[in-house]
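Quick start: what a row looks like.
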Amino acid sequence: MLYYAKGGVNESLSDAQLKQGLFEALKKLGVRKKVLALPPDFTRFYSRAGDLTCYAYEFYKDNFAAVLPTLGTHYPLTEKEKQEMFGDLPRKLFIDHNWRTDIVTLGEVPSSYVKEVSGGAVDYSWPAQVNKHIVQDNYDLILSIGQVLPHEVVGMANYTKNIFVGTGGKDGINKSHFLGAAFGMERMMGR
């Protein structure tokens, strides 16, 4: 479902347009009582995900419960990076993802399917792992914030990549990245 659309190849959104578009989309989702935002880490600073996260906080106010930057295996944001990317967003909202210890496995993609879609490049199951807070903290809205664009390792960046790689665990991250390398980055891009 499309909640908002504006822009084009030769058009950039102003801060006001970005905020208006997000507010318009969020209004269509209805009232929410406990919201989690999943923005990318500082390596995606120029995506404006920090601005969008701050606008979501402004929209939901007290119902904006937490920010879980989708670090994958990257290091947590420093205070300086948080300030640059998220401004004065309250630091008590931030949860640092630990890809070694904070993981819940939701299920598994069977090895037969992974082998089939990889053209036989790999033959192993893939664990669908996420940060435990996504499952255990009873959010009624989880916002995966960021640009959706082709990615050389997992096909498309953001949306599900934010969840399963950005908040994923060691096995899920390593296996997804090896799959991308074994299958071929050129064939993986955009799939």
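That is the whole record. The chain has eight helices and seven strands. Residues 15-188 form a domain with the Rossmann fold fold (CATH 3.40.50.11440).
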